[in-house]
Design goal:
The protein has a domain of 109 residues: VSR Endonuclease (Endonuclease, Chain A), CATH 3.40.960. 30% of the residues lie in helices and 19% in strands. The protein has five helices and six strands. The chain has a six-stranded mixed sheet with strand order 1-2-3-4-6-5, sandwiched between helices. It comes from Mesorhizobium zhangyense. Keywords: Endonuclease, Hydrolase, Nuclease.
Length: 172
Amino acid sequence: MGTFQNEGSSPPPCGGEVARAKPETERGVTAPSSRRSPQKIERARQLRHSDNLAEATLWNELKAKKLGGYKFVRQMPLGPYFADFACRSAKLVVELDGSQHVESSYDRRRDEFMRAQGYSVIRFWSADAVKNLASVCETILAALNGRLSEEVVSSDLRFVFAGTKKAGDGSL
């Protein structure tokens, strides 16, 4: 018989404990850097945990791909702003606004920035998310499915269409 050779993943012949693999961070391999700054991540967490009944109510309908199978995230950083809800695949931002947002020039600048990033923005009153949740969800679904394809502004809704092409569609 020949001598024992340590080949493959066999334990070493010297007995004792088998060396265990260390996590990458202990081996000196650094974790990949996040796409977002720690400050933005912390701010998004604070916004997600704030006591906002309207956002919590709508989130229950959007999370876990409940609305038409579309995946949404909450408080997504987008440039210097945070989107209340965003569907990355459909490039749609959903915002819930209180009465302090009536005719807000700040919101118009946000909408234009998000549109420049390729996102359409749809805004609802927070009260509607609580009192008329089914209508709000149906309107969001209409935007996701392309049934809203131009700007709409009314007393209870604002939709800023980005006008981007859909994958494989060839049209606006």
